[in-house]
């Protein structure tokens, strides 16, 4: 009986993590679509100040869903890789398992501690960590491909490179968003002006290509996970 229990337990765990992986894709894309839609109300000069401030609250809080999903994706994906046969080194597996919860905590704390010194310090650390992760993932894929460990899983290598690209797009959104933030501060404090509205629109327009690239990247990554070319 115990011999049968272990395979059933593994099958259940595999199914549970696959389900969680699907949920992360769904809430990442769905949440991002909601953020994109609500941002249109924030920059709409035809709406009242209160309407735009309400839209901004929806925009900011809804934006946390994609952030959480990104932070958890490597952990869930890394565990799923073990189920399909890819063997991580022990230290790497435990690092992946710890990464998701810690990164979610960082993202959440930055949100709730915004404006405080601790929040600013944590945001700086997070920004530098994301830059590090972009290069670390690319370097890891190159190394494990050249050593042959990833060659049986070309679809997995592609998904990792796409994930690095998604982090890059998110980083670029942070680089391009300041005009929007500056314009919004004017709206929230003294009320909108033509100049503040233009800054908000310009900031959002500069971010749009990276938002669309994230949508495409997430969708392609999901398709590769289903198709598994080269498996």
Whole-number radius of gyration? Answer: 20 Å
Total number of helical segments?
A: 8
Strand residue percentage = under 5%
Tell me the span between the first and last alpha carbons.
33 Å
* Number of domain units: 1
Give the SSE string.
HHHHHHHH
Shape from CA axes?
elongated
Query: Describe the biggest sheet?
Result: none
Count of extended strands: 0
What is the average of the pLDDT values? 94
User: What percent of residues adopt helix (DSSP H or I)?
Assistant: over 70%
Category from helices, strands and their pairing: mainly alpha
The stretches of 5 or more residues where confidence is low (pLDDT under 50) are 1-5
Question: Which labels suit this protein?
Answer:
single chain; 231 residues; mainly alpha; disordered N terminus
Describe the protein in words.
This protein has 231 residues and is mainly alpha-helical. The chain has one domain (2-227). Helices cover 85% and strands 0% of the residues. It has eight helices and no strands. The protein has helices at 2-42, 49-62, 64-83, 90-112, 117-146, 154-176, 178-189, 194-227. Helix 1 runs antiparallel to helix 8, helix 5 packs antiparallel against helix 6 and helix 7 (178-189) packs across helix 8. The chain is elongated and about 60 Å long.
